Amino acid sequence: MAKSIKYEHNFLGSGWAFPVTFSAGNSQLELTANEQNINDSIDIILLTKNGERCFEPQFGSGLQQFFFKKMDETLRGEIAEAVKISLLNNEPRITVYDVKVEFIDLYNGLTEISILYMYNQTNTRHNYVFPFHINEGTNLS
Predict the structure, then answer these.
(1) Which domains are seen in the chain, by residue range?
(2) What does the alpha-carbon distance between residue 49 and residue 54 come to, in Å, rounded to a whole number?
(3) Cα(96)–Cα(120) distance, rounded to whole angstroms?
(4) Beta partners for 13?
(5) Contacts of 20 (CB under 8 A, 6+ apart)
(6) CA distance readout (Å), 59 to 47, 67, 127
(7) What is the mean pLDDT for each group of 10 consecutive residues in the chain (141 residues)?
(8) pTM of the entire predicted model
(9) CA distance 55 to 33
């Protein structure tokens, strides 16, 4: 008789969904767990300005400083380095192996950041794509 092995994801964590939302039916706070919790954490880190959190001034990526800069190889390297350092300092559950920055739409300033990382406890590789652009004023009619 074969015995099944149950894989535990508990070390990946759980917490509030990002952005914070409530379910429509029972107004309960939406939660995430495991892989989605790490992806939400990456979003929070990359969207947070350096110094924005009073009690954790080192938290965040500071990617906002790159808005309106010339989209060239220098900017590509600066963004990749900022992402690597911010995830190294703020997300201990993963190890980042590669960050690729692609300028998808030069006219609209859309930049795509692909992050190849591994969960530290299981050595499982994952890839995450973060769309980095200003989304202000896009709902004007």
Answers:
(1) 11-132 (3.10.450.40)
(2) 11
(3) 10
(4) none
(5) 29, 30
(6) 10, 19, 22
(7) 46 64 77 79 92 91 92 96 96 93 90 92 72 61 50
(8) 0.73
(9) 25
